[in-house]
Amino acid sequence: MLEDMEVLKLLSQADRQLGRLDMYSEYVPNIDLFISMHVLKEATQSSKIEGTKTNIEDALLDQKDVNDEKRDDWEEVQNYIEALNYAITNLGKLPFSSRLIRETHKILLKGVRGKHKRPGEFRISQNWIGGASINDATFIPPIHSDVNEYMGDLENFAHNSESFFPDLLKIALIHYQFETIHPFLDGNGRVGRLMITLYLVEKGILKKPTLYLSDFFEKHRTLYYDNLTRVREKGDIVQWFKFFLVGVIETAKSSIDTFDSILKLQKEVEAKIQSLGSRSNNAQLILNHLFQRPIIDAQKVKELTNLSSPSVYKLIDELEKLEILNEITGAKRGKIYLFREYTKLFK
Description:
Largest sheet: 3 strands, antiparallel
Strand order of the largest sheet: 1-3-2
CATH class of the largest domain: Mainly Alpha
Number of strands: 3
C-alpha cells in the first residue's frame, strides 16, 4: 500500500497543500471570523448529501425568518454547526474518542428527524444501507453486539503511535471503517465527515478547523460511495486512499483561494467605507459582524452601533449604495440585508 507510488505522490501533495492552508491560520487576522462561514458551508453541504435542502442564505436566517416548509432542514443544519463547534471546542478536554463522537452525535440529532433514533447512543439493533428492507439492502453493517468492540478498535488505531502510518491515510481509513461500522441508527454520514476535520485538528496538522471535505464528497457523490463499496467488496483500499487524498488536495487549494479572495474583498470594502467619513467607524463595526455572519437587520445594526433609528437607516442606506449590503426580502418592514459579495465566495 505504501509502496504505491501514486499514493505516495498524492500524499506528498496533500501534505504540502495542508501546510499552505495552515499558514493562513497564523497570518490572517481574525481568522475565526471567517471559519464560522466555512463551518456554515460544511453544514449545508454535509446535510445536502443526506437530502437536506438548505442553502447558505437560508442557513444564515434566524428561525423566525425561515419558511415553515424549510424549517426542519434549517434545524438540521443548525444542529450540525452546533455539533461541529462543540466537538472542536472540546477537543482540548476530550480526545478524539467514542465519547466525543457520541456527544457530538447527540447534538446533531437533537429535536430533528432522527431524534427517536437514540441520539448519542450506539445502535442496539441491525441497520442497513440502501434498499426498502434488509432483504434488498446494498450494504448491511456489522451486527449491533459488535459495535462497541469495533469502535474501541477504531479509537485505539487513531491513538496508536507505536507503528508509523501517515496521518492522512489513517483518517481516510478511520472514515471508511466508521462508515462501514455504521454505529448509529441515523447521522453516520455527517458524523463520519465531521470526524475528518476533528482528527486533523487534534493531530496538529491544522491549527484551526479550515478543511472540510463534504463539498468534494457532494460533488463526486457517486464516486464517494463507489470507492467505499470497492473497499468492502474487493478490498481495494488503495483506490479509496487516492480518492480521499485528491479530495484533500482539491479542498485545501479551494480553501486557500477562498481565503485569498476574502482578504482581497476585505481590503476593497474597507477602502469603500473610508468614503463615509464620520460614519466609517460604525460601518467598520458592521463589517466585522458581516465577515462572521453576513446577514443583518436594522435591529442588529442598532445593537452594534448604539445609533438612533434614523442614523441606523441612514447607515444601512449608505452601505446599500456602496453595494456592501443587499436587501433580500423585498418587504416594506422587517427588511433583511445580505453581504452578498462575501457569501458568493463560499458557493
